[in-house]
Amino acid sequence: MKTAKLIEYLRVDRMPTVWCPGCGNGIIMKATVDAIDRLGLSKSEVAIVSGIGCSSRVTGYLDFNTLHTLHGRAIAFATGVKLARPDMTVIVMGGDGDMLAIGGNHFIHACRRNLNLTVIVFNNSIYGMTGGQYSPTTPTYAMASTAPYGSIEKPFDVVDLATSSGATYVARSTVYHYELTVKFIKAAIEHKGMAVVDVITNCHTYFGRYNKIPDPSEMLEQFKEKSIPLSKAEELSENELKDRIIIGEFRKVESPDFQELYKQLQEKARGEDGYKA
Amino acid sequence: MSERILLQGNEACALGAIRAGCRFYAGYPITPSSEIAEVMARELPKIGGVFIQMEDELASAAAIIGASLAGVKAMTATSGPGFSLMQEAIGYACMAETPVVFVDVQRGGPSTGLPTRPGQGDIMQARWGTHGDHPIITLYPSTVEEVYELIIEAFNLAEEFRNPVIFLMDEVLGHIRESVTLPPDEDIEIISRKSDEEFEEAEEIFLPFEERENVEVIPLAKMGKTRFHVTGLVHDESGFPVGTSNIAGKLLRRLENKIRLHADRIIKYEEFMVKDAEILVIAYGSVARSALRAVKMARLDDIPVGLFRPITIWPFPFKRLKELSKHISGVVVAEMNLGQVAREVSRVFKSRQHFELVSRVDGELISPSEILDAITKMYAGMTEF
How far out from the chain centre does Cα A170 lie? Predict the structure, then answer.
């Protein structure tokens, strides 16, 4: 019944999706519209912006104002949308490569500015669309098409990156934890300021096959087994937390967002002439 | 009488943009364009507009496209290296048919080149900088007063054709200060965003690229009232990606025709004493000022020479040059590059005609005497027999 209701937020005529059977992207897409539905937002007052990649194709299946933009630039496009139309709810959706490699600069600066955006990272630790190359969240020694001997690079921790860059709402979930994902996305949309939700998802087709877990359900089982709530994780040592996925709300602070501060600046500018070189 | 004020080219660009209705500016500092950002940062918040200094030019270009799709007139300004970084987004704006203005205050290139000196080496970058065939409009003024008027035109053309407009300047034009008479309101035409009223309250999704009878440029809808999808992928009239070859071909041709079929309406140029001219000097931007002086000096020596100054660089004014070529025996092109416009001009003028390129790429403005020398030598060669 619930699912049937959520279909109205989807562009069913644009389906089937480009995603492989068993891909976790659909779960995040559903969780997003579920959160929007629970918030009671109208379709026309929401803008969803994505970049390039498997997960970025999500904008083609969602019935809102949807901008499918350039690789890495989704947050920058969304910055323009949000500042031009502060009344709109602006959500950015995309993969770990799009957000943290080619778009890494925009990611950290949007966090620093505390822009009132919701950023949902489909974190599958691989470039899916181009054929399984290693990404900025590929674990060290994991295999990928461009890491045939295992990746020697250290991965980004999306939560650490967002938190240290200044995002005021930061949470992590996995596609195994559907209700939790909905809860976090809903909280992120409601949050005033930069909100980042890191959702661990499965690319069994590439990450899975290269790393001997080609079965999507097995990958989801692993997410379940590896996950540990933040409250419990705090009691464990770094060694005990190795290979674990810490899920929960990592940061939730009230702080004036860019829009609020810019409004104050506009007021000030009306009264003063400003610095003139 | 309108008041005369002293303005710098970059200031005129920013103030003209605001007059045109620009209410969103995103940019990244770069010499010699930074004053545009500084004026925008000071003036936009006073009138309810938004200025944001982005983390790089990639972000700046993306942000203005986002703002424009959300319904606000938007602009960025940069110089050569930054303009290179913006190219991918320019292609996106062409594909998503987004009205935006990109200002490029040219400096010496390539690469970091000569940051504080003028150049005109971005003529071809303005035309072909982004990948793939795409429609583009490029304007290039040559005085501060014209900067002010023409940037308004740039916004108008962007709205009218739902296309990015490249506004070229150069370091000399950006930094020169001149007394300017700002045009009164009644002399200024401002084209507002064509919004589709029909879709203001619609439940249906808006089709942002739907071809309609007797409508040349498809209006954009307002977000919040309806909703739409845009992509940089080849798409059909709904805006959704389609991979079929017939739709791809149709889309690319429609985009090209949007500008090509209206070239006459877009193209602007200025002519000085071309009627009886045997030699035609072709120059644009700040170099056109030296060229005008050279032509006046040559006329004092009874040399039948005229000046043709393209104001619209792209689409290039081939048609008018073809007409002029009928009575012109020699052409002098003066430009601060190695002949980017000269190459276009050579497509019109035949080899039997005298052709001379006065070119400088050392960061120095071409002087009137250099152009006069070329005119005098050419005329001597033509009258030898």
Answer: 10
A68–B67 CB contact, under 8 Å: no
How many angstroms separate the CA of residue A66 from the nearest CA in chain B? 5
Contacts of B38 in chain A (CB under 8 A): 277
Give the dihedral of Cα atoms B326, B330, B336, B342; nearest 10 deg.
50
Q: Which amino acid, residue B294?
A: A
B54: nearest CB among A76, A262, A274: A76
Nearest-by-Cβ selection for B50 from A72, A73, A83: A83
Residue written as tokens 């010496």? B108
**Which of B77, B7, B9, B73 is CA-nearest to residue B41?**
B77
CATH class in words for A2-273: alpha beta
What are the phi and psi torsion angles at A149 (to 5°)?
Answer: -110, 15
Could you tell me the residue ranges of all domains in chain A?
Answer: 2-273
CA-nearest of B330, B373, B372 to B355 is: B330
Give the mutation candidate from B50, B230, B234 for the A interface (greatest A CB count, under 10 A).
B50
Provide the ipTM.
0.96
Q: Which residues of chain B carry a pLDDT beneath 70? A: 1, 195-204, 214, 216, 385
- Compute the nearest-CA separation of B236 from chain A (Å): 12
Q: What is the pLDDT of residues A207-261, one digit of tens each?
A: 999 999 999 999 999 999 999 999 999 999 999 999 999 999 999 999 999 999 9
Q: Are the CB atoms for A113 and A78 separated by under 8 Å?
A: no
Nearest chain B residue to A264 by CA: give it. Answer: B45
Q: Over range A161-176, report the average pLDDT.
A: 98
- For chain B, domains (ranges, CATH) are 3-187 (3.40.50.970), 269-382 (3.40.50.920)
Provide the shortest C-alpha distance from residue B230 to chain A (in Å): 5
To the nearest whole angstrom, how far is the Cα of B45 from the nearest Cα of chain A? 5
Contact B116, B90 (CB under 8 A): no
Report residue B185 as tokens: 């309101």
B324-354: per-residue pLDDT in tens? 999 999 999 999 999 999 999 999 987 778 9
Pairwise CB contact (< 8 Å): A83 & B240: no
Residue A12: DSSP 8-state: G
